[in-house]
Amino acid sequence: xxxxxxxxxxxxxxxxxxxxxxxxxxxxxxxxxxxxxxxxxxxxxxxxxxxxxxxxxxxxxxxxxxxxxxxxxxxxxxxxxxxxxxxxxxxxxxxxxxxxxxxxxxxxxxxxxxxxxxxxxxxxxxxxxxxxxxxxxxxxxxxxxxxxxxxxxxxxxxxxxxxxxxxxxxxxxxxxxxxxxxxxxxxxxxxxxxxxxxxxxxxxxxxxxxxxxxxxxxxxxxxxxxxxxxxxxxxxxxxxxxxxxxxxxxxxxxxxxxxxxxxxxxxxxxxxxxxxxxxxxxxxxxxxxxxxxxxxxxxxxxxxxxxxxxxxxxxxxxxxxxxxxxxxxxx
Length: 331
Known about the structure:
This protein is mainly α. Helices cover 24% and strands 1% of the residues. The chain is built from eleven helices and two strands; from the N terminus they run ααααααααααβαβ. The protein is elongated. The chain starts with a helix and ends in a 14-residue tail after the last strand.
């Protein structure tokens, strides 16, 4: 009788009577694998929110997690009807390790991280250049910003409906974030009307080009002549520093001297022109003899315009009499 009971128990455990687990049943999967499979299935069933194929990201980064990122749907990068519209992975890479992470800590970074402090600036910019490579961006890699590992997303924010760098006041603040010396210069007495909104940085500069000074034109002079055409010439008599580089005398961003000059005349002029005692308008100096200061060495020190009292057309002139700048005083 005991043998029959033991045989019945053994058959029940082997599944003969359907009361136990079959001997050849597969082993139970680990809990992590089950959760991963369920998460993958959930993502496959998830619907896109803003962009085509964005469910892989918006399953986590939704309106409660990152609502500012979903604003991309209101930009040109969110036009779903356009076949050229990129997806999340077009800019950030497939990022498998980031997408499949199920731990409690922060997940690994995406394959391509955008922003001013991107660990791989080249990859960040290449994601943009995959579409924006022609036209004005053809020479980006050889530009000053490109060579110094400035990423496109350092200045641009493609997730916002209105990109801040494309608005006049915001563009100025974007540039000043790095160019702090120029910020200080634009707060000086004599300056271009940038703070008033009458001009913007890219009126003179092309930050995407390969010009060494990031100018829109080939040279400083050609850039200045865009607005100051009266100084272009040609003149019969040219002032050599003027024809070489306007920046020799002027500081375009701002100074405390009038007319954007680097310093007041006669000090500016005498950087090149010697204050010879034979000149009737020698710069004022301390008395050197018992007779005291002469009339000559007080002329320039006693007036505001200095050299410009006599040399009125210092940019160049067409006088047929003088061998120097037109308007020169003749004794």
